[in-house]
Write a structure and sequence with these properties.
There is one protein chain. By secondary structure, this protein is α/β, with parallel strands linked by helices. It has a domain of 98 residues: D-Maltodextrin-Binding Protein, domain 2 (3-Layer(aba) Sandwich), CATH 3.40.190. The protein contains 11 helices and 11 strands. Strands 3, 4, 5, 6, 9, 10 and 11 form a 7-stranded mixed β-sheet that branches. A two-stranded antiparallel sheet has the order 1-2. β1 and β2 form a beta hairpin. The longest helix has 27 residues. The chain is globular, with a radius of gyration of 23 Å. The protein starts with a helix and ends in a 9-residue tail after the last helix. The relative contact order is 0.14. Belongs to the LysR transcriptional regulatory family.
């Protein structure tokens, strides 16, 4: 079976369109259709469902997607390593990241990396913890800035501890406290990130054996902080996730210190591509081991 056929199939599923897949890979639409038809003949069953809404993988094909992605990813690493040995740096590095780390950390690392490896193309994918775990497991990204747990059998390289803070409105009764006890915080309406992005909140509440009155679940950090500033509730938030000054909110340390560990998840640090190894080494040099709170 040909890796080109795997790429044709995976790209079609990702784009949900034969035409868009053809444009992206530099083929004609009939050429993509022919490769997928040939692959269907080889595996012995249909791979695609065509509908008015787009093109999708069949249930049988979904069982093959993971393995195709791993083969394509390994082939990319092989080509990149061979190019490196020959003194040619051409490749692609796909990086997953939380919104907070993409804003706070990535610009400096990308700038340094691009100076050293100007012909390596970087693709950035932002997502919540669950989304990044899935992208890693599927082979859709090469590494991810995230907190544990990483997917099973993946390496995790710790980089920094990011304190978790209480966040209240500036006119809130707790705003004048030097530090806030989580037990006092949950006496007020609680705002929690959408499912899949709420691990940090629950890590504190579960450790303290507390159950808040969840008034709102919000997908979007900016919306959450705006609502808190308008007196609609309180929350717990990692320091780095508060990426810019917000009007009418106050952040306070907790009476018992909690933090999230941020680092890089990758299938194998030892067998990573040359580009990935260089990126990781630069990150270790540029990212402080502990995130200091602003004065």
């Amino acid at each position: 079976m040909s890796i080109l056929k795997y790429k044709a199939f995976l790209t079609t599923v990702e784009e949900q369109s034969l035409t868009k897949a053809a444009d992206r890979l530099g083929y004609t639409q009939p050429g993509i259709s022919h490769m997928i038809a040939s692959l269907e003949s080889e595996v012995g069953f249909p791979l695609l469902i065509r509908s008015k809404e787009g093109v999708y993988a069949t249930e049988n094909a979904k069982q093959l997607v993971y393995y195709m992605q791993q083969i394509v990813s390994s082939e990319n690493t092989l080509v990149e390593t061979a190019n490196k040995i020959r003194g040619i740096e051409i490749g692609l590095l796909r990086i997953g990241t939380y919104c907070s780390t993409s804003i706070q950390w990535l610009p400096a690392v990308i700038s340094a990396f691009s100076e050293l490896h100007p012909k390596i193309v970087l693709q950035i994918f932002e997502g919540f913890h669950g989304e990044l775990n899935q992208l890693l497991a599927e082979g859709s990204i090469d590494l991810a800035f995230m907190s544990p747990p990483a997917p099973a059998n993946y390496d995790f390289i710790p980089l920094a501890e990011d304190p978790i803070l209480a966040v209240v409105g500036q006119n809130h009764p707790l705003a004048k406290e030097e530090c806030i006890d989580p037990a006092d915080l949950i006496r007020y309406p609680f705002i929690i990130p959408d499912e899949g992005a709420d691990e940090d909140v629950w890590s504190v509440l579960n450790a303290e054996h507390l159950t808040p009155e969840v008034r709102f679940r919000i997908k979007g950090d900016m919306t959450m902080l705006s609502m808190i500033g308008n007196g609609l509730g309180v929350t717990l938030f990692p320091y780095l996730a508060i990426v810019s000054p917000y009007a009418n909110i106050v952040t306070k340390p907790l009476t018992h210190a909690y933090s999230r560990t941020l680092g890089i998840a990758i299938r194998s640090a030892k067998h990573a591509s040359p580009a990935a190894k260089s990126f990781i080494n630069l990150t270790k040099q540029l990212i402080p081991h502990t995130t200091a709170l602003a004065e």
